[in-house]
Each structure stands twice: as C-alpha cells, then as structure tokens.
Amino acid sequence: MIMLLLNLIALKGWNVWKPTALFMCSPNVEKLIARLDGINNDLEFSDYLIEKAGVALVPGSAFGSEGHIRISIATSMANLQNALERIKKAILSF
User: Fold this and answer.
1) Do the Cβ atoms of 57 and 50 come closer than 8 Å?
2) Where are the alpha helices (DSSP H) in the chain?
3) 71-84 burial by CB neighbour count: b if 16+ within 10 A, else e?
4) What's the pTM?
C-alpha cells in the first residue's frame, strides 16, 4: 500500500492521503485537471482515463466529492502498479 501511495504522489497534481476505507482511496485531482486542456472535471478525467489508459475509475462527484476520483485497491499490488503506470503514461501523453 505504501508503494501505491508513493506512486500516486509522484504524479504531479495528485493530492493523496492514506485511504480511510478498506477497499478504496480517493485522491483529489483538481490541480491535475486544471492542467489538462479540454478536461474540466472529475467525470471527464475518469472518461479520459478509461479511454486512453484502459483504467476504470469512479468520479468522486458521484459521491459528493467533486474534484476527486475513487480508486479501488481491492486487487493485487501488481494490478495496482500496472494501472498506475498506464495512468501515468496517459497523463504524460496528454
């Protein structure tokens, strides 16, 4: 879990804290969204990541947390690291 959080922090624009739930974390991506031309909110950001990175995230606005995304961590570290690498690649290629 610590490596997951460190990897998320390494992505500029992510404000990440230790998950409070057992199966998900909910980083604030407002700063990142502000830097991505044509992406205006967490819903558009989530759509972009599923299209370009093949990673499904849930927009935080669906749960009253606009500007956040929900990431399920109920999988293996290998799957999480793979998803983070794909997200990073999609963001850097934007």
Assistant:
1) yes
2) 2-10, 30-35, 42-52, 77-92
3) bebeeeeeebeebb
4) 0.78
Taking a C-beta distance cutoff of 8 angstroms, is the pair 69, 29 a contact?
yes
Number of independent structural domains in the chain: 1
CATH of the domain at 40: 3.90.1150.10
Token duo for residue 45: 């950001």
78 is in which domain, residue-wise? 2-92
pLDDT digits (tens, 9 = 90+) for 9-28: 566 666 665 555 568 888 88
CA 62 distance to own-chain centroid: 15
